[in-house]
Amino acid sequence: MLTALQRREPLVQCLTNAVVTNFTANVLLALGASAAMADLPLEAGPFAGVASGVLVNLGTPHADHRDAMREAVAAAKAAGTPWVLDPVAIGLLPVRTALAAELLLQRPTIIRGNPSEIICLAGVGMGGRGVDSVDSPDDALAAGRLLAAEFGSIVAISGPVDIVTDGVTDVRVHTGTPLLTKVTGGGCALGAVIAAFSALSDDRLANTVAACSVYTIAAEQAAADAAGPGSFAVAFLDRLAGLSAETVLKLAVIR
Amino acid sequence: MLTALQRREPLVQCLTNAVVTNFTANVLLALGASAAMADLPLEAGPFAGVASGVLVNLGTPHADHRDAMREAVAAAKAAGTPWVLDPVAIGLLPVRTALAAELLLQRPTIIRGNPSEIICLAGVGMGGRGVDSVDSPDDALAAGRLLAAEFGSIVAISGPVDIVTDGVTDVRVHTGTPLLTKVTGGGCALGAVIAAFSALSDDRLANTVAACSVYTIAAEQAAADAAGPGSFAVAFLDRLAGLSAETVLKLAVIR
Amino acid sequence: MLTALQRREPLVQCLTNAVVTNFTANVLLALGASAAMADLPLEAGPFAGVASGVLVNLGTPHADHRDAMREAVAAAKAAGTPWVLDPVAIGLLPVRTALAAELLLQRPTIIRGNPSEIICLAGVGMGGRGVDSVDSPDDALAAGRLLAAEFGSIVAISGPVDIVTDGVTDVRVHTGTPLLTKVTGGGCALGAVIAAFSALSDDRLANTVAACSVYTIAAEQAAADAAGPGSFAVAFLDRLAGLSAETVLKLAVIR
Questions:
Q1: Mean pLDDT (whole number) for C167-192
Q2: What is the pLDDT of residues C105-143, one digit of tens each?
Q3: Which of C13, C83, C15, C14 is nearest to C50 (CA)?
Q4: Is A245 exposed, middle or buried (0-12, 13-18, 19+ CB in 10 A)?
Q5: Which of A63, A85, A155, B206 could form a disulfide with A144 if both were Cys (CB 3.0 to 4.6 A apart)?
Q6: What would the 3-class secondary structure string for A69-80 be?
Q7: B-chain residues near A226 (CB < 8 A)
Q8: Nearest CA in chain B to A61
């Protein structure tokens, strides 16, 4: 799948938050995808019709962005474009929590979040501490299966071990590094990478697992090169750009 | 205080400008704090009620952000949460200049700015050249003391030597590097670090001096590693993440 | 011209997109210019009156930004401040396409774009694939000359070889690296650098060629240091900060 991605250069439309937009675009470019941040009302819809995949990340959802997100989701659905919902920091914060509930009814192709976000989105818990989770992926597994079953989504729960579920089959991705939590956008950019992989095959579970695996393998390699979070972020982009299918097959730990 | 910060992981809410939001979040994460950029109307208030400290930075204050800032400041005051005002580039620019004057009346816990901003905020001068100061910290000391006395704020004036004053006692922090002026957000991120330290003790002057000292020591270390502003910014994050209380005590030059 | 820029520290006002604003400011600071992102209605105009040069980049033109752009352009024209139009991703996307057509009538001092954008702006083609060009600079040369002749603008067409034209004389800048396309803002930040050089002499063609040459020489040097796009971006800032007129004269390939 990595080889297919590098060959096809999927065009990923990101409606994402102001904090991570630069890092997210650089992650997509390093991976070999094309990134476009078309997040305006009247533009988000037309773009979603031509994009390979769409990311809707609720990190800083100002009014204009909310309208653009609704437009992009409607257009993605109409065009059959896969789209990813990342319900950042829902729970305490009312605007994004309501928007996440609304977009969930549109049946996202994939949902990516940290455990507390997944638990909150499923309606069985309160959310985390700001953007940080207070739960583990295993705590959120039942909630993730529930969301997958009810909304037909693939659910990717990020943590020390990522869990990806379609409601029936649970896949665990064991690669990664805690340094991803020390760089802002470490989770958000994974949502964009999942959107990039989402167009590669009809097996949505496999697409999502491949994305998580590629992402965390590059991160693990970068952590080995790094003296701290600054050099980690730099090495991560270098490693994503240099990653080959052979390396992924050698280093992947997927169960 | 650095040890206390690393143990408590204060949750810092940043209402800051679009240019530096990524760097600011990464500085906070590297330091060991938690960063959340909750800057929406209807969300900024609830978040300020749970945050450890709040930064209000006027670098790109669009209408929505201005409403969110007012909301966050009111909620921070109601909850007793310390908050930092950074009056970026006031003087020539009317929207932020009026907003800074309005927020000043809310008696910020701490005010951080470059010398020209402090002079302008105190009403005794015209502001700088864009985001750059045309005055030295000593030029701004009288203005800083005036603000501290009138509004009960700690005032931190950034420059080659930072001066922190409560209106009575002036503390000078002699560490630092000119490379901080060659990376965008070098001053803005200090405002966020001050917000992170602001919750650590009841001695607001000491909290602010500690923040300035830790920040500029890590910067000084990074400058020694750097080949230019690009590698400096990377090394700065690494050094912040690796900094220990022992190193701070050894390298601090505070008078 | 590089020496003149380093001595004068031109103040560059950037009305640019949310994705690249941090990188753009860091490029300007590394180069020795001063960067200010004054992009609010009611502030963009006053600032354009004192700026050395203004960049108007249409990458994420939300409503407030559009108003600020109109204001900045009017004020720049009134003050005789040179300004650069970068019509990012026009074609498919209606809001920016209409805005680009409107601003073009204001006769930009310089227009910078990728080949597909220049072709689309001249009204002789459809635009590219998202932010990527599907045409080569030579494909866009006739369109560039047309724009230059009709609107009195210098037109800079970015690609493997940059072409700068005033409608009569075409100058080719042969330095550069494909890594500039693997870092988001690789093109957008060039627009800001052109704005920085635009105030240095009355020869607008020479100013623009100097900007493209300095930018791509630093990029070429950085590519030689880099292990991938992450370390390239870091090295690029270091190289811009370390670049001397002597090195530019030695490495420039301008025809």
A1: 98
A2: 999 999 999 999 999 999 998 888 888 888 999 999 999
A3: C13
A4: middle
A5: A155
A6: HHHHHHHHHHHC
A7: 238
A8: B40
List residues bridging with A19 in a β-sheet: none
Give me the residue from C63, C92, C230 closest to A236, CB to CB: C230
**Chain CA centroid to CA A204, Å:** 13
CA distances from A222 to A226, B26, C190 (A): 6, 17, 29
User: Backbone phi, then psi, for B73, in 5-degree steps?
Assistant: -65, -45
User: From the CA atom positions of chain A, what is the Rg in Å?
Assistant: 16
| Nearest-Cα residue of chain A relative to residue B22 | A19
Distance CA A58, CA A55 (A): 10
CB nearest to C19's CB, from A22, A30, A64: A22
The residues spanned by each domain of chain B are 2-251
Per-residue DSSP letters for C79-130?
Answer: HT--EEEE-TTTTT-HHHHHHHHHHHTT--SEEEE-HHHHHHHTTSS---BT
* SS3 label, residue B86: strand
Q: How far is A216 from chain C (nearest CA, A)?
A: 17
* A26/C184 Cβ within 8 A: yes
pLDDT at A131: 81
DSSP output for C4-59: HHHHH--EEEEE--TTTHHHHHHHHHHHT-EEE---STTTHHHHHHH-SEEEEE-S
> Binding site, residues of B?
37, 112, 158, 185
Kindly list the residues from chain B whose CB atom is less than 8 angstroms away from the CB atom of residue C30. 182, 228-230
- Structure-token match 């930064």, residue found: B55
pLDDT in tens, C214-239: 999 999 999 999 999 999 999 999 99
**Stretches in chain A below the pLDDT threshold 50:** none
Rounded Cα distance, C36 and C11, in Å: 7
Residue C125 confidence (pLDDT): 87
- State the smallest CA–CA distance between residue B10 and chain A in angstroms: 11
- Whether the Cβ atoms of residue B84 and residue B110 lie closer than 8 Å to each other: yes
Inter-chain touch B22–A23, beta carbons under 8 Å: yes
Per 3-state DSSP, chain A is made up of helix, strand and coil in percentages (nearest 5) of 50, 15, 35
| Domain covering A2-251 assigned CATH 3.20.20.190 in the classification | no
Per-residue pLDDT tens digits for B57-96: 999 999 999 999 999 999 999 999 999 999 999 999 999 9
* Residue C100 near residue C106, CB atoms below 8 Å: no
Residue B231 to residue C234, Cβ atoms within 8 A = yes
Percentage above 90 pLDDT, chain C: 96
Whether the CB-CB separation of A156 and A194 falls below 8 Å is answered with yes
Angle at C217 between CA C33 and CA C198, to 5 degrees: 40
For residue B171, the one-letter residue type is V
Inter-helix orientation angle C204-225/C229-242, to 10°? 130
Side by side, the strands of the sheet bearing C154-157 are C34-36, C11-15, C53-57, C83-86, C110-113, C154-157, C162-165, C170-173
The reported pLDDT for the residue numbered B109 is: 98
